[in-house]
Amino acid sequence: MSKLNFVLFGPPGAGKGTQSTFLIERYGLIHLSTGDLLRAEIKAETELGLQAQELMDKGELVGDAIVIGMIRNMMEAHLDAKGFIFDGFPRTRAQAEALDEMLSAKNEPIVAMFALEVPEEELVKRLLGRGATSGRSDDRDEAVIRNRIREYEKKTAPLKDFYSDQGKFKSIDGVGTMAQITERLVKAIG
Ligand code: B4P
């Protein structure tokens, strides 16, 4: 049976992490979040974590080679997975091309890319709300949040065309209750 490999895409705070937790349970998939992997490195105070923290605290993207290497290691560690949800990865064209290469070598391509669409003011509200309770340093400062959104528009949003050209891009309204959005995703997965 072919693998269910999905990309969950969207600006910071769109709900990628939130929706991933529902989808991995429903479809029995492995969740690969580069944000979570980077935060684990920061917590463990590794050299890589220290480098990543500096960039994340400014709302900038971490280097392509670092995140591609992390994803490669995680995929190798889960060779028997039914499929993967890529959450927050790819975020640049170089990352998208590297992912396609890794998957085509195994003949297990991305099935679909779901883009959660949420207006900027709602994103800022959600992230400041989380920053008040989560301790995530990149969620506390509105200027950093807006910089993350600018980075997304400049470097990540163009990937919609990359997946659209492959016939895999699906837009999902990301405003509503978490359950409503899960329902929209399940319907789109079909
Ligand atoms: P990530 O950890 O990927 O996180 P995110 O974009 O901030 O948020 P996400 O969309 O997952 O939102 P969530 O569900 O949590 O990135 C953090 C940083 O890591 C980046 O800025 C970058 O520096 C670095 N990084 C990560 N991957 C990288 C890569 N591939 N390349 C380079 N750098 C990389 O939801 C947010 C909040 O909204 C939560 O509080 C949630 O409860 C709330 N929420 C969710 N759904 C809601 C709904 N329907 N209604 C109301 N609130 C909702």
Report strand %.
5-15%
How many alpha or pi helices?
A: 9
Give the strand tally: 5
CATH architecture: 3-Layer(aba) Sandwich
Distance between the termini: 16 Å
Main beta-sheet strand count, sense and barrel state: 5 strands, parallel
Radius of gyration: 16 Å
- Helix-strand string: EHEHHHEHEHHHEH
Shape assignment:
globular
- Classify the oligomer: single chain
Structural class: alpha/beta
Share of residues in helices: 55-70%
CATH topology: Rossmann fold
What number is the mean pLDDT? 96
User: What hetero molecules are in the model?
Assistant: BIS(adenosine)-5'-tetraphosphate
Detail the poorly predicted runs: none
Whole-number count of domains:
1
For the largest sheet, list the strands in their spatial order: 2-3-1-4-5
- Overall CATH class: Alpha Beta
Q: Would you spell out the secondary-structure blueprint of this structure?
A:
Elements: E1 6-9, H1 16-27, E2 30-33, H2 34-43, H3 47-58, H4 64-77, E3 84-87, H5 93-106, E4 112-117, H6 120-134, H7 142-156, H8 159-164, E5 169-173, H9 178-189
Parallel strand pairs: 1-3, 1-4, 2-3, 4-5
The structure holds BIS(adenosine)-5'-tetraphosphate (B4P).
BIS(adenosine)-5'-tetraphosphate binds at residues 10, 12-18, 34-35, 38, 55-56, 59, 61-62, 67, 88-89, 91, 95, 126, 129-130, 138, 148, 176, 178, 181.
Can you tell me about this structure?
With 190 residues, the chain is an alpha/beta fold. The chain is built from 9 helices and 5 strands, in the order βαβαααβαβαααβα. The chain has one domain (5-29, 81-189): Rossmann fold (3-Layer(aba) Sandwich), CATH 3.40.50. A 5-stranded parallel β-sheet has the order 2-3-1-4-5, with helices on both faces. Helix 1 packs across helix 9 and helix 2 (34-43) packs across helix 3. The chain starts with 5 loop residues before the first strand and ends with a helix. Bound molecules: BIS(adenosine)-5'-tetraphosphate. BIS(adenosine)-5'-tetraphosphate (B4P) binds at residues 10, 12-18, 34-35, 38, 55-56, 59, 61-62, 67, 88-89, 91, 95, 126, 129-130, 138, 148, 176, 178, 181.
